[in-house]
Specification:
about 325 residues, alpha+beta, Beta Polymerase, domain 2, 12 helices
Length: about 325
């Protein structure tokens, strides 16, 4: 639940830094989906250039997205446009935020479809990587890309059927998706992600391995997370969210969320290593190449990866079929 007094204090804090800005609350707090430990997401509109930054105020964390006044919708990222439809307008003296929200509402179906297709594209790209990994007998990398594509499928499905996907709430949102096909989509995707392995002990192992991923990112001079936020700020918050879910006995939700962040963290790490070494990435061998680095010592079993060749082959086939059926549904309108 929102605490009105807290929200007033946060808005006053932002106003001191941006006195002439329009201010709106977006993210999970705006739709009352937040956990008590969730950060506050604010959108501000003023004369400055576009930017994004995270700050701490008292015990609260604020993500502030700044967009310039009069910006065209085509220049705003689709995920932010999706968030704008639910913006809670707090200060808007010149009605610039009201105007932007009205424009978004008018074109929301086109914006939603664009966001869905973006994640379907990523899912297909990762499916191709998984198939290539499998053909090279790199089963663990094939499993990695299957898990990664499953999360893109989840985001696409949530956006189409429910609302904007929110990383730490993906499991709850995904459970609300209606079944549009004879395939059991929840069973299929839960199997690919590995939610049947979700226990408190498996989470503890994954957290330990995730700490090592973070340490290696820092060792490799990666200063920012996949969210383009400082590592020393972002990763402790991820662990804080996971701890809250574990403490409240939401083990499956915690596993789904941490698994998502592990996938993102490993891909981010691999891209950073390739950039620092000035080599072209071989995505079809992502996990094998990461494991080949002498300083990267992580037992991939701790991260929930499997090497059952038959199972991976079956998952590739069923995910390919699921994506096709969803794409057909989008084409049919």
């Amino acid at each position: 639940m929102q605490n009105i007094q807290i929200l007033k204090e946060l808005v006053n804090y932002i106003q001191l830094k941006h006195p002439n800005a329009s201010i709106g609350l977006i993210g999970c707090h705006s739709v009352k989906l937040n956990y008590p430990i969730c950060e506050y997401d604010f959108l501000i509109i003023n004369e400055c250039e576009a930017s994004q930054f995270r700050v701490s105020f008292q015990e609260h964390v604020l993500d502030i997205i700044n967009i310039p006044k009069g910006i065209e919708l085509s220049k705003i990222d689709p995920w932010l446009l999706m968030a704008l439809k639910d913006v809670q307008i707090l200060i808007d003296h010149d009605w610039s935020l009201h105007s932007l929200k009205l424009n978004v509402t008018e074109f929301i179906n086109e914006i939603r479809l664009k966001f869905v297709k973006k994640h379907l594209y990523y899912a297909l790209l990762k499916l191709a990587r998984s198939i290539n990994s499998f053909s090279q007998n790199d089963i663990i990398s094939a499993n990695f890309w299957l898990k990664s594509m499953a999360y893109d499928c989840i985001k696409a499905l949530i956006t189409h059927f429910i609302d904007s996907p929110r990383p730490s709430h993906l499991f709850e949102q995904f459970r609300a998706i209606p079944n549009f096909t004879q395939l059991n989509i929840r069973e299929i995707i839960n199997d690919v992600i590995g939610l049947s392995f979700a226990t408190e002990s498996s989470l503890m192992r994954m957290i330990k391995a995730f700490d090592m991923v973070i340490e290696f990112n820092e060792f490799n001079n990666q200063k920012f997370s996949p969210y383009n936020l400082p590592l020393h700020i972002e990763y402790p918050l991820i662990k804080k969210r996971v701890k809250y879910l574990i403490d409240t006995a939401n083990i499956i939700q915690a596993y789904c969320y941490l698994n998502y962040e592990v996938i993102r963290g490993l891909e981010f790490l691999y891209d950073g290593i390739c950039q620092s070494m000035k080599i072209y990435p071989s995505y079809e061998r992502i996990i094998s190449e990461l494991m080949s680095y002498s300083k990267f010592k992580i037992d991939m079993n701790m991260l929930g990866f499997i090497v059952d060749q038959q199972k991976i082959n079956e998952q590739i086939k069923i995910m390919k079929k699921l994506i096709k059926e969803f794409d057909d549904k989008l084409s049919d309108g």
